[in-house]
Automatic annotation (TrEMBL):
It comes from the Bacteria. It comes from Salegentibacter mishustinae. Keywords: Membrane, Transmembrane, Transmembrane helix. Signal peptide: none annotated. This is Cytochrome C oxidase subunit I.
Length: 403
């Protein structure tokens, strides 16, 4: 009889990742050969499956494992998980055919309620031994940011029915959602796992030091949202708030990386060489994320990003396929929720890095008016195909192992 535990939970998350990556290949094939599908509808299916199928399920599964110290799932959690998957499958099979319409909106709304129930489950049932730890404070903040981000989708319906898609509020509501997903829920959730790792390895982040880091991080996350408003030519105070948010984030991450560098030998000794390597690569990608986000505090680069879609896509993929996904790979492997083959990991990393170079290359070509080679889109498809191949490799290996 099939028994659903966190390992199966993780394999299902990877299955969504595989599907999202496949949809990503389909999107790039639009530029190579005629495709009998609606491009925008496929984008909706791709993004929702990637963010809500892969990242949400993987991250929530890790959080459950940290706080409850078990891979078994109680009935309440199982019900939430099953309904969450109904909502995900509903979005997967409705978005490609109708985009944002009645059916897809129903399933999207159902997912939001599932995320609220998950948050309530965690906050109500977390054992007391975790509640006053540094990692739980970060995880709790991450969950509240996830809930807070949903203001964006809720606002979309009212905006579309009253002001229409041409309104600046339509884009702002989407940017609000994406900011508090990428830069708050995902980021603080991953940092919570990092601080759990610190505690397991007996690395002491002093209470006063953590308090300063926590406040710098949270105020930075909130204020840096104003970076997403620069394209509207807002009052100068918005520029000041966005710039202040970047400064606070830089101070927070300077403090974090200084701590990591002081304790790098203990980290290296406490992890396998492979997991330590993943942690290092993830840290480098996080630095890149912070650098690119900080650049948008300068109006010239903010305008450039708004006008050049390739830079935006490159940044979003840098965060999603790079920093977030590699961090999840490493933590899932460390917690033994998956077995991560080194060859599959480096195949994935190669596909990610080369595709990122190609995306940013196109952005620079369009910006600077440089020559553009004709086989670009075909090469991008072939390189990007390494990602679903690697993810499929990981799924196959773990399915055989679990069976």
């Amino acid at each position: 009889m099939f028994r659903l535990d966190l390992k199966a939970h993780t394999n299902i998350a990877f299955a969504y990742f595989f599907l999202a990556a496949g949809l990503g290949i389909l999107l790039r094939l639009f530029y190579v050969t005629p495709i009998a599908a609606n491009y925008k509808y496929i984008i909706h299916a791709h993004s929702h499956t990637a963010l809500l199928g892969w990242v949400y399920l993987a991250l929530t599964g890790i959080i459950y494992r940290l706080l409850f110290q078990t891979t078994k799932l109680p009935k309440k959690y199982l019900y939430i998980f099953l309904v969450t998957n109904i909502s995900l499958l509903g979005m997967l099979f409705s978005f490609p055919f109708q985009g944002y319409a009645v059916v897809s909106i129903i399933f999207s709304t159902l997912f939001l309620f599932c995320s609220y129930f998950y948050t309530g489950f965690i906050l109500r049932n977390t054992p007391d031994e975790h509640r006053h730890t540094q990692y739980f404070k970060l995880i709790k903040a991450a969950l509240w940011y996830m809930v807070f981000s949903s203001i964006g989708p809720w606002a979309l319906g009212a905006i579309m029915s009253t002001l229409g898609k041409a309104s600046i509020w339509y884009k702002l509501s989407i940017y609000f959602y994406l900011h508090f997903q990428y830069n708050a829920w995902f980021l603080l959730g991953i940092l919570g796992i990092v601080f759990y790792l610190f505690q397991k390895l007996k690395l002491t982040f002093a209470p006063s030091e953590f308090k300063r880091f926590f406040y710098l991080l949270n105020f930075g996350v909130i204020l840096s949202f104003f970076l997403s408003t620069y394209w509207t030519n807002p009052p100068i105070v918005f520029h000041f708030l966005g710039g202040l948010g970047v400064i606070l984030l830089l101070l927070a991450f300077y403090q974090l990386f200084a701590f990591i560098l002081r304790n790098k030998y203990q980290l290296k000794a406490g992890l396998s060489s492979f997991n330590y390597q993943i942690l290092k690569i993830t840290g480098i990608l996080l630095v890149g994320k912070i650098f690119m986000q900080s650049l948008t505090a300068i109006p010239f680069f903010a305008d450039l990003a708004f006008e050049n879609l390739d830079f935006v896509i490159g940044y979003l993929h840098w965060v999603f396929l790079g920093f977030v996904s590699l961090a999840l790979f490493g933590f899932l492997n460390w917690l033994k929720l998956i077995r991560l083959p080194k060859k599959a990991f480096y195949l994935y990393l190669s596909g990610f890095l080369i595709s990122e170079m190609l995306i940013f290359y196109k952005g620079f070509v369009l910006w600077l008016g440089l020559p553009f080679f004709s086989s670009y889109f075909l090469i991008l498809v072939l390189v990007s195909a390494l990602i679903p191949i690697a993810v499929g490799w990981i799924i196959g290996l773990n399915f055989r192992k679990n069976k």
